[in-house]
Amino acid sequence: MKKHIFENMEEVELLKIVTEYFRSNIFENHKSSSIKTHSKLKSYKINPIVVKYLSKILEKDFTPIGIAKALYYPRVLGTSINTSFGTRIQNMFVALKLAEGSLIKGMDIEFIDKIDGRKKWCQLKSGPNTINSEDVSPLLKKFTTVTNLARTNSLAMNNSDLILGVLYGEESQLSQHYSKINQQFPVVIGKDF
């Protein structure tokens, strides 16, 4: 029972550290970058028809606030944070010493697994629907290339040492594309990861 409480205390402490890292290094950077990059009206190419339409959707009328939201929200909430999120999370793992950056092509991080004590090489993905059918073959090829290189160099590595780590979600939420990978290499998701 005491071990279970200790593990929960470690999890709570880690959650606090990760939350603070995310707030200061990801949220604050995104916020200041968004304000600096998108606060000047000159940088916008405005479609006068679409901006009126979007203003009416957002504010139920054509208003200055609706126009501002229609112009600003897509830039701040769009692809920029989604594109950089994976890299920022990878940097977080390394900065918090939860893992090391990997020098192996196709692997994002390396760490010692707390369950089996073996070194793991990991490709990171953010969520259970973040790959599509075209991503499966290249991912399997990367993993197979690393496995073959390990054999060539007489490294003690097996397929369970190469994992696809998914940051959030549950196993039942994984898309069918992940299940194809999981047939050869473990896909570890959410809390299990």
Features:
55% helix, 6 helices, single chain, 193 residues, five-stranded mixed β-sheet, elongated, disordered N terminus, alpha/beta
- C-alpha termini separation: 23 Å
On the 0 to 100 scale, the average pLDDT is: 83
Order of helices and strands: HHHHEEEHEHE
The whole-angstrom Rg is 21 Å
- Shape annotation: elongated
What is the total tally of β strands? 5
Strand order of the largest sheet: 1-2-3-4-5
What fraction, in percent, of the residue positions are helical?
55-70%
Sheet of most strands = 5 strands, mixed
**Number of H- or I-type helical stretches:** 6
Beta content: 5-15%
Secondary structure class reads alpha/beta
Detail the poorly predicted runs.
1-6
Give a verbal description of the structure.
This protein has helices at 2-38, 48-59, 64-77, 79-95, 133-152, 176-182; strands at 100-101, 109-112, 119-125, 162-166, 187-189. A five-stranded mixed β-sheet has the order 1-2-3-4-5, with helices on both faces. With 193 residues, it is of the alpha/beta class.
Give a brief outline of the structure:
With 193 residues, this protein is of the alpha/beta class.
